[in-house]
Amino acid sequence: TFSSNILFWSQTGYFEGAAELKPLLHTWSLAVEEQFYLFFPLFMMVVWRWGKMWLTAMLVVLAIGSLALAQWGALHKPIAAFFLLPTRAWELILGVLVALYLSRPTLKEAPPSLRDGASLLGAGLLLYAIFGFDQRTPFPGLYALLPTVGTALIIVYCGPQTWVGKVLCSPAFVGVGLISYSAYLW
């Protein structure tokens, strides 16, 4: 029913000891994604007729509103903010905005130095989030900008010719990528 996030929100915090005894806890994020995928097409059907510019503007407004709610929630209702769609929607909307950007037919290739710099910045943001965040980091508020913007920068600017792209195209990283989703589910 795509509602495990609601169940886990009502039962425990993500990092509490009891979470170790819940082998399906990771399904909360799948539930959030599926909830988004149920509502987003309805939103698109309503807004698409106004054109891509209005669609983009409304997505930006929704993302900012969701991020603001996430920041408030991270400080005042951290468990709800962590598990529920309204405070996580902006992360998915950022992905939609990246897809809209990349779908532009007039998109010109960025200069190699910009591609290298932006993908390195993206990788740096991700690494900082991985190694710098801990259970005391208020999340998913403004701190969540680091891994999400980092990922967006890598998606938009990284290619096989960039430094980050060369690392990500290495056999070890490709191997991890090939099994990561299955391992996550398992």
Q: Which structural category fits the helices and strands?
A: mainly alpha
Average of the residue pLDDT scores: 89
| DSSP helix fraction | over 70%
Main β-sheet description: none
Radius of gyration: 18 Å
Distance between the termini: 19 Å
Report the sheet-strand fraction: under 5%
Q: What is the β-strand count?
A: 0
Shape descriptor:
globular
Number of helices: 9
SSE run: HHHHHHHHH
Low-confidence stretches: none
Would you mind describing this structure in some detail?
By secondary structure, the protein is mainly alpha-helical. It is 72% helix and 0% strand. It contains 9 helices and no strands. The protein has helices spanning 4-11, 27-47, 52-76, 78-83, 85-102, 112-132, 145-157, 163-168, 171-185. The radius of gyration is 18 Å and the shape is globular. The two termini are 19 Å apart.
Highlighted features:
186 residues; mainly alpha; globular
What is the element layout, followed by pairings?
Elements: H1 4-11, H2 27-47, H3 52-76, H4 78-83, H5 85-102, H6 112-132, H7 145-157, H8 163-168, H9 171-185
